[in-house]
Amino acid sequence: MIRVLLADDQLLVRAGFRALLDAQPDIEVVGEAADGEEALLALRDLCPDVVLMDIRMPVLDGLAATRQITEDPRLSAVKVVMLTTFELDEYVFEAIRCGASGFLVKDTEPEELVRAVRAVVEGDALLSPGVTRRLIAEFAARSKEPAADGTLAPLTEREREVMALVGLGMSNEEIARRLVVSPLTAKTHVSRTMVKLGARDRAQLVVLAYESGLVRPGWLG
Predict the structure, then answer these.
(1) How far are the Cα atoms of 4, 85, 143 from residue 47, in angstroms, in the given order?
(2) Composition of the chain by helix, strand, coil, percent to 5
(3) Burial of residue 150 (number of CB atoms within 10 Å: 0-12, 13-18, 19+)
(4) Its domain of life (predicted)?
(5) 161: which residues sit within 8 A by CB, 6+ positions away?
(6) How far is Cα 220 from Cα 137, in angstroms, rounded to an integer?
(7) What's the pTM?
(8) What is the three-class DSSP state of 176?
(9) Of 80, 157, 181, 190, which is most buried with the most CB atoms under 10 A?
(10) What pLDDT, in 10s, does the model give residues 140-199?
């Protein structure tokens, strides 16, 4: 079972998400929180696999809560999916930088919410190719000249190539077609790259691709 925690200050939103997710045979909502502090307490008590976290909440907002989650080694296995009212919410970019595995708009289609929960547990991130590319474009626009710090030293040439394609927003299937390999092989390369670099998920791999200079602004086309 995939264990989910709901963190949103709107009771009706939580109730709607709970009804949808609890109806799935492989998903269980194990708890709810109305603000970021409640979410952190519930996380440590309930140990969910995924947190659906609203960005704007009282007491402690979702961004600050996500930062604490990703900085806590005890919560390293928890995936955070941010919830926002608008796709281009100004905080979404920073949420990905803080370690969120992706984000969803609150009026997303029910099947997309369910798919997203399953996807982040499997190690995928950012959830939508269109959203991925918008976030990458935003990151490219904000990125600075990278420092030569040897971050990518552990990677093979093929792993660097795969990481660059991830940084351009490609899915495993798209990477497989580009490199003329199977999707499973592409997924294996992505997974090994994340392990070697200590990346929590695909979203962080995108950030590292830009911060290391492997992918540079202007490559999106």
Answers:
(1) 9, 27, 34
(2) 50, 15, 35
(3) exposed
(4) Bacteria
(5) 179
(6) 7
(7) 0.70
(8) helix
(9) 80
(10) 666 555 555 578 889 999 999 999 998 877 888 889 999 999 999 999 999 999 999 988
